[in-house]
Each structure stands twice: as structure tokens, then as C-alpha cells.
Amino acid sequence: MLKIAYSPVYKYELPKGHRFPMDKYELIPEQLLYEGSITTDQFFHPDQLSEADILLTHTNEYWQKLATNSLSKKEIRKIGFPVRPELIDRGRYIAKGTVDCVKYALEDGVSMNVAGGTHHAFADSGEGFCIFNDFAIAANYYLSRGVLQKILIVDLDVHQGNGTAKIFEEEPRVFTFSMHGEKNYPLRKEKSDLDIGVPDKIEDADYLKILKDTLPKLLDQVQPEIVFYLSGVDVLSTDKLGRLGMTKEGCKQRDQFVFESCYHENIPVVVSMGGGYSERIADIVDAHANTFRLAQEIWF
């Protein structure tokens, strides 16, 4: 059974007019349930991530600033949200959701988080709508316990996974692969183990060719025990921040190729949703829902 991390706290009320589409975290499960792609018993509600597990990835100084609501105005601007205690709590539930997804993926082949993909968070700071780095937290959780020894992070969000790259720059057990808009945010890129910057306006065929030429070789080279897949839908041509030229069908084919490549190699996959900022919320929800539909179809 496909197990999906979701909690009502994933939806969070931002100030009126804020551009981040928080509604998608409620609408994705509703859409999947309405169409019968999944059932309610596939959802699990994660607990809150412990302080000890936060500190496996994030610095104590940064955590104390979050815990005491004492980030500077500059630090808050860098994150891009008004940072309140409820938002920090929300991040702890989301990160624990990804941690728990690893357990289910190891058992069932795949597991998914309705939120997550917070790849701009560094060990000592937040950035770009990201407070905690859920993939880094989940990776360090299982590495520290000796459960996993080799992890491949496949980050196909339109923005480089800069925080993830920096956190694992000296960790040979985690291979970071980011395929992103070359000229998009962040302006200053970090160094992943493999970075592929694609040009603005790239369309489906060229994007998919790069991915198909790259991922199978990586799976063979890295020999991961698990893949963490960040399936951002901000690659769509309709995205307000993405600047690429991909269709919804191309995005679906991207997900299908990642899933089938891992499935045929018997490599478990953990999925977090990442970004999506199209004008129409229906486009965001449908593109994300495709990822869930495909996982259900391929594994179950």
C-alpha cells in the first residue's frame, strides 16, 4: 500500500496576498480522494520531529533562534515567510513525515510526503520558503542509526537544491544530484555532486533527453540503497517562478521515468513535493497529483 504523509497542519495561513500557494497541501489529498486514486487509510499523520533529530542536521544556534522566535529581520527576509511558532511547528511535522516515509519506502518500495522538498534550508539558516531541510534530516536520521549507508538525492525542482548540496558537501554516503534552471534562483549556486543547469524555456523533449541520459548512469554509479526524489512542478511553463517550457504531460513523463528507473532496479523511493507556483492552483494540484497517481500505478 502506498503510504502518504499528511497532516492538517501542513496548510498554514499566510498573510493575504502572499505568493506561496499553501492551499495545495489541502487540495492535493482532496483531489486524490475525490477521484478514487487513493483511500483515506493510505494517509498517516506524522508526529513532531524531536529536537535531538533536528540537531543531527541543523546547528544548535539556528535551532535556538527558531525555538525562541529570535531570528533577525534579515534572517526572516531570507526565509520569505513571516516566521511564527506555528510555522516552525509545521516544519517539524513535515520533516518527520519525510523521516517516516523512508521507513515505509523500505518496506513497500515507495512512500510520499504531501509537502516537503525544503532544499534551500542550510544547517545554520533558512532560505527560500524553507526552514528545515527535510531530505537532509531524513538522510541523517537513518545514517546516524546505521540503517542506510548510501543515499541518492534526485532533485528535479526548477531551483537548485543549494542547502542540501552544502549540508552534504563532505558526506560521501549521500550523493546529491540537482537538475535545475541554470539562470534561476539561487543566484549563487552551491556545488552538488552533480549539477545540471538547463536553459530558460527548455521544452519537454530536450529536458527528458538530459534526464534519460543521466539518471540510469547515476543509479549504476552510486548504487544507492534508496532514492530521495524531489518532484517540484515549478518546471511547468505556466509557473510564475520557473521560466522553463515544460508541459504537464512532460512533467508527468519525468516522474514516470524516475519511478520506473528505480522500480526496475528495485531501489526504494521517497518523494517530497517541492515547488509549484502556477497562476492556476488547479494546474499545481493536477501536476502534483500525477506524481501520486504514477507511484500508485507503478508499485501497486
Describe it.
- The chain is α/β, with parallel strands linked by helices.
- The protein has one domain: Arginase, Chain A (3-Layer(aba) Sandwich).
- Helices cover 42% and strands 12% of the residues.
- The protein has 10 helices and 8 strands.
- Strands 2-1-3-8-7-4-5-6 form an 8-stranded parallel sheet, with helices on both faces.
- Helix 5 packs across helix 6 and helix 8 runs parallel beside helix 9.
- The model has no long low-confidence stretch (mean pLDDT 96).
- One of its GO terms (biological process) is epigenetic regulation of gene expression.
- It comes from Portibacter lacus.
- InterPro entries: HDAC_classIV, HDACs, His_deacetylse_dom, His_deacetylse_dom_sf, Ureohydrolase_dom_sf.
Write the layout of secondary structure elements.
Blueprint lengths: L2 E3 L18 H11 L8 E2 L6 H4 L5 H8 L5 H7 L5 H24 L1 E4 L20 H11 L6 E5 L6 H6 L6 E8 L12 E5 L5 H19 L3 E5 L17 H17 L4 E4 L8 H19 L1
Parallel strand pairs: 1-2, 1-3, 3-8, 4-5, 4-7, 5-6, 7-8
Helix pairs in contact: 1-10, 5-6, 8-9, 9-10
- The assigned CATH architecture is 3-Layer(aba) Sandwich
Mean pLDDT across all amino acids: 96
Low-confidence residue ranges: none
CATH homologous superfamily caption? Histone deacetylase domain
The class by helix and strand makeup works out as: alpha/beta
Q: Tell me, briefly, the overall form.
A: globular
Determine Rg (CA atoms, Å). Answer: 17 Å
Question: Main traits of this protein?
Answer:
about 300 residues, alpha/beta, 10 helices, hydrolase activity, 8 strands, Arginase, Chain A, globular, eight-stranded parallel β-sheet, HDAC_classIV, hydrolase, HDACs
